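Board work, copied verbatim: DUF456 domain-containing protein
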Amino acid sequence: MIEIALLVAVVLLIAGVVGSVVPLVPSGLFSLAGVLVYWLFGSEPIGPLLLFSLLAVALFAAVVEQFGGAIAAKATGASNRTTIAAIVAGLLLFFVAGPVGIVVGIVAVVFVAELLEDVPPEIAFRRAMYTLAGILASTGVQLLLTLSVLAGFVVFVVLL
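↓ predict structure ↓
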């Protein structure tokens, strides 16, 4: 008979993978929750190295999900103020805008913030477009990270 904690953990881990490509679903947090549910309530103990590894990758997925656009803005040379504005915009827009609103909002914030920093419009636009590319690329990174948490869990907890 399948253990309830294992079933819940696997469902959460699968939700994390699905959430990496479905907007507004916290993929990294679902993966994190899946590992923690099994660690807290599962019948077989998870070793500290495996636990740390799975939690670290899931946490990194959550960070990439939330801050991918801001990280991309900073990587293109945007100011610290612009980067912080992009982070705040992403956090606030998560609660009031749909997926398109979040992306458009973050890109617009980067563009306007850079203009307010006296950056030439063409450079501000380029940084905003790189931010858009970073947001879109973060989806692929999230998918890879959440898949690796699911695969690691299945291999080392379920199969071995």
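Residues 23 and 99 are 6 Å apart (CA to CA).
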